[in-house]
Write a structure and sequence with these properties.
Shape of chain A: elongated
CATH architecture of chain A: Orthogonal Bundle
Number of helices of chain A: 5
Structural class of chain A: alpha+beta
Helix content of chain A: 55-70%
Strand content of chain A: 15-25%
Order of helices and strands of chain A: HHEHHEEH
Number of domains of chain A: 1
CATH class of chain A: Mainly Alpha
Number of strands of chain A: 3
Largest sheet of chain A: 3 strands, antiparallel
Oligomer: homodimer
Radius of gyration of chain A: 15 Å
Distance between the termini of chain A: 26 Å
DNA sequence: TAGACAGTTAGACAATTTTCTAATTATCTA
DNA sequence: TAGATAATTAGAAAATTGTCTAACTGTCTA
């Protein structure tokens, strides 16, 4: 299981998540939004997948990526616990 | 203004934040909690400061660090917006 | 089934990041 | 004021990360 925080550290990867918020997209559609080679985007998608922030489903010759929101809750929990001093 | 996400990407820095959740600490006290040279810790503290995640106040020959929770809200807002699909 | 298309893998390279030791600055106290 | 203590700055080395091109795999369709 990859590092969620490291995954979120890169601005391109955060932008991918924002894109996927609107709708599921395949790798090519995602890549169109970036001034970057396709393998680079593929690499970012892989890091997001390992961090469990997106899921990938092969559909024909495309791979459709979707946002996975489950992990966010965990992150938010940690952030909230930092916000509330002295708890724990 | 430094990058908050990059600041949060490092596990040692996140641990520093958790330490400061309990109470304010000076640089030396923080460093005691890590198997790392003092300059390295100092570097991490500087990155956290630039990201506005901690504040530093010189008190005598010590520098006391405190958690700054303001920025978390911004992060949480972004995370929440990702959680709620299709909004915006 | 041959060629085109979508996507990933492999390998190399450049940039960034983390860490160290040594040196420096600032403050306290005997 | 001299020496000790707290912390940072400087500069270098090692590790990690992001990016590229070239090559490969799998799927579709004419």
């Amino acid at each position: 299981m990859g590092d969620v925080w490291k995954a979120l550290a890169d601005p391109s990867r955060r932008e991918i998540l924002v894109l996927l918020r609107k709708r599921d997209m395949n790798a090519g559609e995602i890549a169109e939004n970036f001034d970057m080679s396709k393998p680079s985007v593929s690499n970012h998608l892989n890091i997001l997948k390992q961090a469990d922030l997106v899921s990938a489903e092969k559909r024909g010759q495309n791979v459709v990526y979707s946002l996975k929101t489950g992990v966010f809750e965990e992150i938010m929990r940690l952030l909230m616990s930092l916000t509330d001093k002295q708890e724990d």
